[in-house]
Design a protein that fits this description.
By secondary structure, the chain is of the alpha+beta class. It has two domains: 54 residues; 129 residues, Immunoglobulin-like. Helices cover 27% and strands 31% of the residues. It has a four-stranded mixed sheet, with no helix packed on it. The protein has a three-stranded antiparallel sheet with strand order 2-7-9. It has a two-stranded antiparallel sheet with strand order 5-6. A hairpin with a 4-residue loop joins strand 5 and strand 6. Helix 1 runs antiparallel to helix 2. The chain starts with a helix and ends in an 8-residue tail after the last helix.
Amino acid sequence: MTPASSTARKTARGSYRTCIQALSTPPEENAYNDVVGAFHKNTAKTQRSAAALKSSLTDWHKQAQYEAHAQVIFRIRDQYGSDVDAHDITFKSTARGAGRNRLELMIEDVHRNKLSPGTITFYLRTQAFDSDRRQFENLLDDCKEVDIEITGEEPDSEDISYLPLTIRLTKPNVSRVLQGFRTTIVDVTLPRLPSQKTLQLTKSRSE
């Protein structure tokens, strides 16, 4: 058995155990914290084993599958609790200032919820394996300040508009709000307003 296949088998067994542990955890804060601690230990052990795997020029990047990912779920609704079906979310990192990494470049996949159109999930790769140092680097620790711009529209009517929202994450806040191997849920309310056309008054001509 090669070291790579041995590590993969151990990882699969560890994943099975952690899944069973998660599903059997009672809904209590102390129990949850105990499981989180166990997960952290298991993750650190797995990544140490993965970091030791040898690669050649013809091999695929073995460590890539062990790099941390994060989920960011936006739930976008109006002030009445209804989904804003047609919306757009844009990540814009600042060109200047501290930080080397751009959050928008970490996005690897986007999933729109068909049952709840106002819900959208972003999948981000938050780690990169440093081959020289033989360790996993947290990209969020050196991330640039970023603006998250959220807009909505009513494609079937020109009488309705939505107030847009911009969320600014400073460099320290990026790594506090987002974490590898975790999910962040952001609830957004875009106020639904009458458009300018609805409130426009015109003077009729008298014949």
